[in-house]
Specification:
This protein is of the alpha+beta class. Helices cover about 50% and strands about 20% of the residues. The protein has 6 helices and 7 strands. The strands form 2 sheets. The chain has a 5-stranded mixed beta sheet with strand order 2-3-1-6-7, with helices on both faces. Strands 4-5 form a two-stranded antiparallel ribbon. β2 and β3 (about 100-105) form a beta hairpin. α3 (about 60-65) packs antiparallel against α4. It is globular, with a radius of gyration of 17 Å.
């Protein structure tokens, strides 16, 4: 009975930390993990930066409007899968909500690696998704911030990456912007 209880508790804990549609970490779990990474960085006086990328899908609403919400849900799950294929298993991939995702990538050799990873993710979305037999060309716009260079708080990094993403949207979508870029 104790083994069954432990297994049930582990399953419940996993369910509470997981996004239902994508199987990725959910918002609450992600905020905790980012906070843990920042604290680890501070405790170890870690000079190796990590990137927090905020991405928003371009063209998602059209899929929902034309093919329906079930197709939109399938597309979100496919986006999560593609992100997992593009990044390492130790990287953080989260669906923040709606068509917004957050990526946490550590172990950067230099701040320029944040941009390299962002371009890799952009390139990974060049191929259309096939949902219900329909090719769905969606893009994404990415904004990113680096810790500790840009900020050392969860809220600060998210706000900076989000603002950079919106600056990219204003510049024409389907692009990458770093926090603080004009």
């Amino acid at each position: 009975e104790i083994g069954d209880l432990a297994q049930s508790f582990a399953a419940m804990t996993h369910k509470l930390a997981t996004d239902r549609l994508t199987g990725l970490a959910n918002r609450e779990a992600t905020l905790r993990r980012i906070g843990d990474r920042i604290e680890q960085h501070r405790r170890q006086s870690d000079a190796v930066p990590f990137a927090l990328l905020f991405l928003d899908l371009d063209g998602f609403k059209a899929v929902n409007d034309q093919l329906g919400h079930e197709a939109g849900d399938l597309l979100l799950a496919a986006v999560g899968q593609r992100l997992q294929e593009l990044l390492r298993t130790e990287d953080l991939i989260c669906r923040l909500g709606g068509d917004e995702f957050v990526l946490g990538v550590g172990g950067l050799a230099s701040p320029a690696d944040g941009e390299r990873i962002g371009h890799k993710v952009l390139a990974g979305f060049a191929e259309p998704f096939h949902i219900k037999g329909v090719a769905c060309d969606i893009g994404l716009t990415l904004g990113y911030a680096l810790a500790p260079q840009d900020d050392t708080s969860v809220a600060g990094l998210l706000d900076l990456a989000d603002a950079a993403m919106y600056a990219g949207k204003r510049a024409g979508k389907n692009c990458l912007r770093r926090a603080g870029q004009d």
